[in-house]
DNA sequence: ATGAAAGCGCTAACAG
DNA sequence: CTGTTAGCGCTTTCAT
């Protein structure tokens, strides 16, 4: 097969173990032999067999990544590629590989996760979402396997590493821009209510209203997958109320795009007839018209920090559990109108 | 550490090799012992160590995936998640893992690819793009490492597995919808001209014009990254010509979204003032307004076929080189107007 | 500072 | 049909 450590050893006139030590830059090897061995490696075009190494020292230098089961359109949300970029960037610097879960259904994904961890394919896992009753998270926690969550865990807050925004505050802040512009009839449009991020964002939305002394009306909250016929109904009802909202807090930029379209169909213009704010600040939100006033949650940073945190945890098993909050900020664009 | 094959062997009163054979469902093991061994595995909660297995039989059951260097926004193109879904689906069924390239710059990606292949981490590689002078593709080809390309290779057409659409025909077809609606002043807006997909699509665009007897005007072709100030200039110039186009063939749905915005800024309406058609048919294209008339290239299928092809090639080294063309079809929506 | 040897968990001849 | 025995390529004591 390929060039092995033995070939290098022979070429450099040393023992295989010495080559191994050079590989890990062991300080107890003289500069002279290091030079010699390194030259031999170059000459022969040697590359260590990562599998063999993994087997020998029981560590794989690879991180597993779980996305939500790819069956739904959620994957087309630009959030994922962006967070992946953040992860990828630090993984590369730290010489870690990335192994992503396969499978379409929840069961398949779970199966692929088990394969990764029980098959000793990865040193740690990263979940790019957080939802209620998630089997993957439960499994990892129970097994005591190192992992990090992007989002907020459902319970066990102090036992699981997680990277999150302060989504409650973020929702307060973005709702406040509506309030400051004179809006009082403000509705919330969320996605999957099982996602903790949705929970937090409604919670913040409500708090903002409270603080402003605006009564909370439950018929002003709708949860919908985007663009399903059911979703369309929900939105229509919202605007057929006696007092339809003048402001919309939408849980996610991609959903906002969907909303924009539905509203257009109903002949409702943004921001003239209704103002809209949302979350994430993906690329799309700035190229769409109207450009969205949204919350920049620093997706890239989320991924970055998550990778760092996981790698630390993997390297040092009794690294304390961490909770890292990535700051957000409001970016105002053209989807909000000042009310008289 | 964990449960090993030896533990299972002991528990089932057989030799380790027997357990191994049960693992691979070797037909020369009696049903009785298979049952017994399998029970032992279940009881002990045994899972094979994939690394050890890889080392022993020199095959990793994992596929490497290369995306374009994630530095640019290209990654936010919903094309990638969708093709990944296709790949993931068959990878899972075939019990393959997916290892994605890390790094932000082209150099870093190249480095991570070398790590994968020379480090024996993957059995085959898949490139999710195809562009001129691509170091990764060159490297793989030269090394004779199994790989598959999504797109059309630049040269070596018969030496590299690839899955592609007939982009020339697709461009002809989509340009024809403009022509059939009476358009004659039709411009082409492409992205990175180094991508083979861009080449093919202009080529088809030109052929369509030719076949319709419409003269080809080079100032009607612009290549631009979306939304850069340079891009804006290019588009402005297009519409400041004596005879501005009445139809636009845009190389990609995401670019189309950017175009829509630029056009709006210039006060040009779609489809009233200019008609627009594009490629890919990502989710976005149906939820944006106007909904895009576009070419469905069956992204999921592209990924699916690519994975199948690669796995075949990996399993059987002298499987012939394949070229698979995934059919496209036109989906007409609301971005085109009939001209008088 | 370096070498010899055992072993990580599994597979694959080779026996029987 | 099943057991024995070598490795796969690397790391890591333990010597020297």
Question: Could you please describe the fold and organization of this structure?
Answer:
- Chain A has 340 residues and is of the alpha/beta class.
- In chain A, strands 2-1-3-4-5-11 form a six-stranded parallel sheet, sandwiched between helices.
- In chain A, α1 packs across α3, α5 crosses α13 and α8 crosses α9.
- The longest helix of chain A has 17 residues.
- Chain A is elongated, with a radius of gyration of 25 Å.
- The relative contact order of chain A is 0.12.
- β2 of chain A pairs antiparallel with β2 of chain B, so a sheet runs across the interface.
- Chain A binds a DNA duplex (16 and 16 nucleotides) through α2 and α4.
Provide the low-confidence segments of chain A as ranges: none
Query: Which class do the helix and strand fractions of chain A yield?
Result: alpha/beta
The quaternary structure here is: homodimer
Question: How is the main sheet of chain A built?
Answer: 6 strands, parallel
- Average pLDDT of chain A works out at 92
Q: So what's the CATH class of the largest domain in chain A?
A: Alpha Beta
- Strands of chain A, count: 12
Q: Radius of gyration of chain A in whole Å, from Cα?
A: 25 Å
- Spatial shape of chain A: elongated
> How many structurally independent domains of chain A?
3
Terminus-to-terminus distance of chain A: 77 Å
Q: Greatest chain-chain interface? A: A-B, 61 and 61 residues
Which terms would index this structure?
homodimer, 340 residues, alpha/beta, 434 Repressor (Amino-terminal Domain), Rossmann fold, 13 helices, 15% strand, DNA-binding, DNA-binding (chains A, B), transcription (chains A, B), LacI family DNA-binding transcriptional regulator (chains A, B)
